[in-house]
Amino acid sequence: MKKVFCTLVAAAALTLVACSSANTNNADADTTAPVEAMAAPAIEDTYGEWTINEVCGTPVDGKATLTLNADGTFGAVICNSFSGIVVQRGRSINAFGFENVARTDRMGDPIEMAIEDTFAQTLDSVRHFDIVNGTLLLKDDNDEVLISCQR
Hints:
The structure is a single chain. The chain is 28% helix and 34% strand. The protein is of the alpha+beta class. The longest helix has 28 residues, at 2-29. The protein is built from two helices and nine strands. The chain has two domains: 1-30; 43-150, Lipocalin (Beta Barrel).
């Protein structure tokens, strides 16, 4: 009886060792990679000319543009021309805003002028940007889209 008991204990021990080795090997063989978070776009991704699609949810015709330059300046044309500087507004790589905004003062289509007035007021509220499916989204502190543009 003692021999049978010892044999069973030895067999159980060998089984545990074998299972333990198999589990270790399976853990090493697991090729499932964690899903990586998408990195925030960098300011360099915004450089160039963009067509303004919407300002505060209001569609804009295809001739309004926003140009962001590598030297930290920007320009925009809706009816009048805008210019100023782009500044970092926070520690995030995509935190920015507009300062020292200047604007020409020509009359134009009343609808374009209303959109332009909203655009001028909105520039001060921009705090960061995202680029989603090729669309530049200028957002406020609450992550609300204020201005959307496409290349």
